C-alpha cells in the first residue's frame, strides 16, 4: 500500500496550491479519502474528506470556502485545491485512506505560506 503526496511548496499569502495524493495497493474506490494537516507543536487536524464515490465532502471550519477536495477513481488520486492561502495554513499535509477495516497514511508534503 502506498499513498504518495505531492504538490506542496512555498507560496505567498493569497496564493494557491494543488496537492495530489496517488494511491496504490488497495481498492481506492472503496475508501473515504481525507486530507489532514499538522503544524509544529499542534495536533493533526482534519482539513477535508470525500466519500468513496465522491458524492459527499466535508471541510474543517478554517478552510471552508477556500479549499476543495476532489478525487479521480480512475487515476486513484485525491486532490486538494487550496486557494486564498494564509500563513496559518502552513503545515505538513497528509493524505489518509479510511476503509471498513483499514486505515492508511501518506508521508506528508510540506506547505509553507509566507511572504
Mind explaining what this structure looks like?
By secondary structure, the protein is mainly beta. Helices cover 0% and strands 52% of the residues. The protein has strands at 2-6, 9-11, 17-24, 32-38, 45-50, 57-59, 67-72, 77-82, 91-98, 103-105, 109-113. The strands form 2 sheets. Strands 2, 4, 5, 6, 9, 10 and 11 form a 7-stranded mixed β-sheet that branches. A 4-stranded antiparallel β-sheet has the order 1-3-8-7, with no helix packed on it. The N and C termini lie far apart (37 Å). The mean pLDDT is 97.
Quick overview:
The protein is mostly beta strands and 115 residues long. The protein has strands spanning 2-6, 9-11, 17-24, 32-38, 45-50, 57-59, 67-72, 77-82, 91-98, 103-105, 109-113. Helix content is 0%, strand content 52%.
Q: What percent of the residues sit in helical stretches (DSSP H or I)?
A: under 10%
Please state the CA-atom Rg, rounded to the nearest Å. 13 Å
Strand content: over 45%
- What structural class do the secondary elements suggest? mainly beta
**H/E element string?**
EEEEEEEEEEE
Shape: globular
Q: Residue-averaged pLDDT, rounded?
A: 97
What's the β-strand tally?
A: 11
Biggest sheet: strands, sense, closure?
A: 7 strands, mixed
